[in-house]
């Protein structure tokens, strides 16, 4: 029996991050673990012999008076050193705690602690690869570990000890083969987790009982019980209001009837029966999702075919399945059969992953990501790669193992995740997918969505963006260099070098290398020409970031064609050479190298196609523009091509669905007061398709008011820096009164960044957690979740934060709109659209710019009140809402709430009164 190690789980609180710059420990806690049980604890305040900075006091709740009578580190250092001997040193981010402690020991003349170390951040990322955050506070919440006071050494150390034990428990429950594969790679980790992997592996081998894990080439996967599809239950739609009330009251004891929800249900039910196409604009507060799911489910069960429900993002798909379907199950008293279809690239290619397991890893990130996937495969039922939380470097490996059209079913020993999802989608009541899948289905030989009896398009206005994104082409300099970098040269350990393993003659390898070097040289020369031309082109605003329509650049077509031609020559040569020798590749290692070559040649073909479409093809109804940041050349160079005519694409995708049954378009914002068909016309819908509007009850918004700050400067009459100073002051004043819980919405990332930088320089909001899109790390949803976890927090975002975000209750109490959300006149996409509207005899401002901004304004306001008990203030800092004739269009677009025009000083007083009363 392998002897179990002893662990000392340590956490320290300090006056700052650098012991070498004079920062000191103010509290230390140690939790000792023997035989996988907590055996003892030690904790002590430490007198740092200096004042504790205010932000540290606020973070840790440790005051100067708490440590004034505490021992000096000199007095306890020897005892701490003795206690830690013969233990593995464990910490949450051990690379901070251990070096800091070592420096303190050295400072007081004590010997260095000789020990092995383990990092619970690294361990948790491996054992729980699908957590959204690896901060101790977030992990504790997700894994139900008690953490009473975060950033206190005693509580943090105890929580970390319980986390270590949970990770060990998770590891010991993994299949033996998984642990073996993990142990094999664990020697490349940054902390000594290999000791623990070996310890658990040795114990597991002695007591291992075969479990029912299917394996794919010796990779254990989660066992999924096959669903038994019984005959659908026949349900009758409750047509009468009394029947609906009875149904809801039976399963929801505190159910409150919402104005418009029952009417929405009836409208959708009737459309399905009559197989009509309709538009339903349902305000927040209607209960839209349940309003369409109930009639859809009953209709699907009657037809014994699925109703297709499409949303914009995969996040909304998961939200619908995890939150809304369980409500409906309870309401109807049945188990609704739900299928979920996402694009192929969301799924893992098991065979390709297995191949990579046979190779030596290229980096720590790759090793770590492979280990995360090995654990995740024993947890996931769907194989959806979005479940994984991997590092930026890990994403590069994820891209290598995504499912693609190139797929050999004969290689599989278990069912492929993607095909499992397709099979499940064929026998369900509700089939949830996204807009991109519906649009892509028009090009599939065997349509995946051909079996539906009706279609509901939720977040319908986003269907336009989905179509634009589908047809969009993007040239990224960094992506191109990354793909080209995979080939290398004959004297580097990249693809060209690996050809020697395949025994391809040197002469052919040299020829291929010469052709590839020519590709790189011509590509680099062409990029230099493009950048030079961009620098010569003047733009209206003197920002570091430039956006320029491609037509404004002076580019010679011949040099652009040379890039395409040399790449094509290299691709054809590589394919010919590899094909000629492919019959000699019998060994697994040779086969893997061949697959690598095929994969990267395919990637290069995709890049070549992008180049051709962006630079060498011209269409009237499209916009092409270059984006570059002068601080990062050429790395920031991006060129985008986006279509301006997407109605036909949408029609082609929807026409087959129209033949199968009703089509219901629904969203909270599908019209503006001055242009009812603004969105539906862009969707390509005929004006005779009825637009049904469902409004929330008047008292739903009783907790909201709109404040217009009327003494803000006019941005057109002051410098940007002066305007940003005024914005920053208004934001700071608002946050201090409301104690955070605030969204700040910008139309420009540049202005957002400069405002946040200024606020941070003033240190006036140092007590608050500031999260800024494009500045704080993490995705939009991660930023939102972080924002919700802190009561004193502020979230700064641009347009992409304005919709699809729910923050119910007290987590959000104020929205500040810095500027009315017009597109910038310098935005290349807007410039091209305005040019086409002008040619067609339309006014770009009234036909597009104004209704688009009003729609965004509605969406921004829609984030504030998400339930009838929510209370909040919507603050507009842009004076144009009161000084311009079109300002009233914005006010008319939101519900009828109190509107007050106030100075900045009076706004603060108004907020104080509102906040004090809780109104």
UniProtKB/TrEMBL annotation:
ATP binds at residues 282-289. Its EC number is 3.1.-.-. It comes from the Bacteria. Residues 247-520 form the Helicase ATP-binding domain. A motif (DEAH box) lies at residues 458-461. One of its GO terms (molecular function) is DNA helicase activity. SUPFAM superfamilies: P-loop containing nucleoside triphosphate hydrolases, Ribonuclease H-like. Its cofactor is [4Fe-4S] cluster. Residues 730-905 form the Helicase C-terminal domain. It catalyses: ATP + H2O = ADP + phosphate + H(+). Keywords: ATP-binding, Exonuclease, Helicase, Hydrolase, Nuclease, Nucleotide-binding. NCBIfam families: dinG_rel (TIGR01407), dnaq (TIGR00573), PRK08074.1 (NF005981). 3'-5' exonuclease. Belongs to the helicase family. DinG subfamily. Type 2 sub-subfamily. This is 3'-5' exonuclease DinG. It comes from Psychrobacillus mangrovi. The gene is dinG.
């Amino acid at each position: 029996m392998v002897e179990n190690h002893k662990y000392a789980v340590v956490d320290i609180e300090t006056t700052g991050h650098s012991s070498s710059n004079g920062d000191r420990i103010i509290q230390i806690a140690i939790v000792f673990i023997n035989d996988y049980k907590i055996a003892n604890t030690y904790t002590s305040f430490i007198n740092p012999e200096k004042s504790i900075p205010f932000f540290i006091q606020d973070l840790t709740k440790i005051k100067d008076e708490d440590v004034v009578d505490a021992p000096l580190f000199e007095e306890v250092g020897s005892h701490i050193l003795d206690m830690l001997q013969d233990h593995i040193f464990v910490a949450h981010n051990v690379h901070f705690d251990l070096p800091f402690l070592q420096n303190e020991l050295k400072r007081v003349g004590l010997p260095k602690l000789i020990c092995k170390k383990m990092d619970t951040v690294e361990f948790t990322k491996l054992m729980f690869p699908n957590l959204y955050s690896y901060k101790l506070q977030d992990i504790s919440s997700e894994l139900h570990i008690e953490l009473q006071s975060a950033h206190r050494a005693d509580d943090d150390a105890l929580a970390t000890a319980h986390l270590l034990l949970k990770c060990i428990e998770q590891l010991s429950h993994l299949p033996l083969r998984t642990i073996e594969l993990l142990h094999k790679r664990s020697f490349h980790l940054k902390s000594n987790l290999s000791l623990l992997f070996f310890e658990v592996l040795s114990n597991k081998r002695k007591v291992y009982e075969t479990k029912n894990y299917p394996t794919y080439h010796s990779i254990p996967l989660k066992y999924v019980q096959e669903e038994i599809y019984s005959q659908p239950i026949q349900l009758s739609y409750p047509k009468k209001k009394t029947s609906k009330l009875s149904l809801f009251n039976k399963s929801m004891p505190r159910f409150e009837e919402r104005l418009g929800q029952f009417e929405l249900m009836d409208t959708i039910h009737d459309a399905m029966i009559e197989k009509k196409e309709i538009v339903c604009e349902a305000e927040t507060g209607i209960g839209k999702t349940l309003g369409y799911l109930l009639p859809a489910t009953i209709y699907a069960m009657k037809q014994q075919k699925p109703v297709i429900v499409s949303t914009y993002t995969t996040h909304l798909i998961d939200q619908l399945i995890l939150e809304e379907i369980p409500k409906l199950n309870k309401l109807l008293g049945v188990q609704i059969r739900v299928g979920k279809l996402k694009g192929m690239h969301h799924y893992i290619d098991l065979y390709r992953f297995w191949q990579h397991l046979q190779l030596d890893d290229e980096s720590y990130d790759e090793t770590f990501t492979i280990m995360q996937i090995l654990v995740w495969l024993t947890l996931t039922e769907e194989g959806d790669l979005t479940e994984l939380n991997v590092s930026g470097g890990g994403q590069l490996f994820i891209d290598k193992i995504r499912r693609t059209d190139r797929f050999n079913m004969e290689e599989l020993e278990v069912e492929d995740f993607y095909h499992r999802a397709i099979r499940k989608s064929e026998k369900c009541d509700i089939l949830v997918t996204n807009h991109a899948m519906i649009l892509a289905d028009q090009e599939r030989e065997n349509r995946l969505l051909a079996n539906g009896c009706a279609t509901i398009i939720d977040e319908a206005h986003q269907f336009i963006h989905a179509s634009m994104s589908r047809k969009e082409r993007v040239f990224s300099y960094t992506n191109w260099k990354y793909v080209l970098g995979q080939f290398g040269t004959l004297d580097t350990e990249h693809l060209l070098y690996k050809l020697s393993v395949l025994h391809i003659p040197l002469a052919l390898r040299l020829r291929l290398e010469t052709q590839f070097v020519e590709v790189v040289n011509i590509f680099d020369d062409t990029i230099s020409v493009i950048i030079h031309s961009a620098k010569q082109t003047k733009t209206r605003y003197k920002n570091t970031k430039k956006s320029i329509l491609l037509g404004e650049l002076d580019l010679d077509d011949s040099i652009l064609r040379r890039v395409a031609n040399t790449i094509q020559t290299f691709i054809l040569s590589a394919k010919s050479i590899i094909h000629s020798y492919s019959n000699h590749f019998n060994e697994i290692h040779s086969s893997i190298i061949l697959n690598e070559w095929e994969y990267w040649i395919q990637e290069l073909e995709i890049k070549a196609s992008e180049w051709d479409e962006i630079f060498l093809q011209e269409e009237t109804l499209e916009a092409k523009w270059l984006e570059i940041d002068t601080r990062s050349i050429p790395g920031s160079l991006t060129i985008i091509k986006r279509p301006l005519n997407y109605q036909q694409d949408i029609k082609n995708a929807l026409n087959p669905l129209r033949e199968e049954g009703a089509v219901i378009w629904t969203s909270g914002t599908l019209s503006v007061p001055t242009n009812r068909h603004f969105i539906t016309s862009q969707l390509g819908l005929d004006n005779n398709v009825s637009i049904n509007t469902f409004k929330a009850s008047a008292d739903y918004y009783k907790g909201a008011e709109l404040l217009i700050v009327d003494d803000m400067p006019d941005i057109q009459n002051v410098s940007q820096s002066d305007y940003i100073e005024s914005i920053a002051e208004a934001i700071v004043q608002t946050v201090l009164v409301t104690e955070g819980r605030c969204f700040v919405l910008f139309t420009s990332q540049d202005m957002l960044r400069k405002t946040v930088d200024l606020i941070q320089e003033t240190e006036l909001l140092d007590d608050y957690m500031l999260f800024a899109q494009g500045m704080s790390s993490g995705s939009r949803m991660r930023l939102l979740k972080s924002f919700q976890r802190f009561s004193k927090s502020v979230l700064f975002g641009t347009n992409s934060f304005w919709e699809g975000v729910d923050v119910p209750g007290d987590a959000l109490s104020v929205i500040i709109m810095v500027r009315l959300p017009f597109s910038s006149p310098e935005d290349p996409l807007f410039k091209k659209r305005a040019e086409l509207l002008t040619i067609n005899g339309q006014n770009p401002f009234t036909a597009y710019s104004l209704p688009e901004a009003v729609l965004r304004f509605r969406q921004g306001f829609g984030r504030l009140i998400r339930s009838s008990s929510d209370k909040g203030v919507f603050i507009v800092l842009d004076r144009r809402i009161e000084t311009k004739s079109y300002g009233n269009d914005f006010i008319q677009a939101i519900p009828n709430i109190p509107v007050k025009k106030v100075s900045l000083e009076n706004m603060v007083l108004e907020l104080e009164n509102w906040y004090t009363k809780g109104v």
